[in-house]
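Technical appendix A lists one of the benchmark inputs used to test multi-chain prediction within the project. The record comprises two sequence entries:
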Amino acid sequence: MRSLRTTLPLRTLAVTGAAVFLCLFWSCLPSKVQTAIPAFAQAVTAMSANTKAAFEVVEQKYEEAQAFTLVVNYRPGQRFDPSTVKVLLADEDLDARMKLLAGLQQYASQLEALAGGAATSKVEQSNKQLGASLKTLASSAPIKSMAGNARYTAIEANGSVSAVDALGNFLIQEKLRKNLPELIAGMQEPVAAIRDLFKADIGAVDTKGDGRGLRFALWATYTQLIQKQQEFLDANFKDLNPEQRAAEIEKLPATVRARRLADQTLAQTETSLDQLVKANVQLLDAVKTKGAMHSEIDGLRDESLRIGEFYRSLSSTK
Amino acid sequence: MSGSGTASPQPQQSDVYSAFKSLYDSLNDAYWAASTVEAKDRISGERDEVYEVMMDLVAEDIKSRTGDFQALSQKVTEVNKRLEALSKDIDSLVARVSAANAVVSGITQVLSLARAFFP
């Protein structure tokens, strides 16, 4: 008869091997998905921040145009009417959009928490702690004196833990494999609708300034700033010294350049919304077919991070 | 009695934007063509009003989609709730795996101690 001493490690090895085999060759989420989902989450976070920034930039420029119009139109003795100070977009309109962006970010971060390896690492972390406490227990004096020659080793204990560990990971992966495709498929239509709605908000503008949406508003606001700057110069030219004149005149071409840059930034934000839809489609393909999937997701992430830099530069310059 | 002529087509939103944009440009030209300060001030004031109307049009256009955004948020929230439920299932699986490990380890301990006492 085989002794307990030899049976236990063999059983441990067999269970671990079976679990590893199942994970590798049958049903687990491919490792490419596990690495791509964090990239997707990062891309969605950056893209959401950029879309939010598009609204903020337009509102900020509208505020600047109002203030500068007031400066240029100001006449001594004229009473200031506080009711003329307005915001472009009502709170409820902005809130609806910000809430949707927050929901989209939550979708991405929950996917990351589930399939980015966090769940399996929870098992490993939990069992590492257990393994460590077993080692301590096995080497403690009372156990040593009781066990005598039992040769119950920490390696043996860790082997048992590893077997359950591998099976646990397998069960988690199996649950994800069954549920994630359906959940990601359920987000295909909403993500496409998110793209369509935000693209309608962002709108378009041509080189003459004709257009619609935020791009039209931003272009028209920069144009208004340029006109008011000319009016300011026209009215005050004689009272400015040469340095002041130069500084005020230089603002004209600078504002024209800023208008073009700001419009391009909004246009790129619109393009990244198309990339979001493609990336979400790739995500679904990847969890279904184990295919490679990085191109659209990496493209969206890189592009969104780059656009984010533009928004920061727009906010820091007037 | 209805008229026999064909009704003129409803203006598109882009036509309205374009009409105000043209008016804005025309007033801008008129500003530089005006010869007196009074005329310039009046034209400038009117142009500022047209700018505000254009901004109101954008705000109204954006407002017209707010209901769609709210409805879409509901759909996204539903998917997120299902993701949350899956996350909870996995957490409970993690807890069960840890519990199973504790049991396995306990059995291993008992067996090894048994070997020491009953060789």
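Chain B is about 85% helix and 0% strand. The mean pLDDT of chain B is 84. Comparable benchmark entries are summarised in Table A2.
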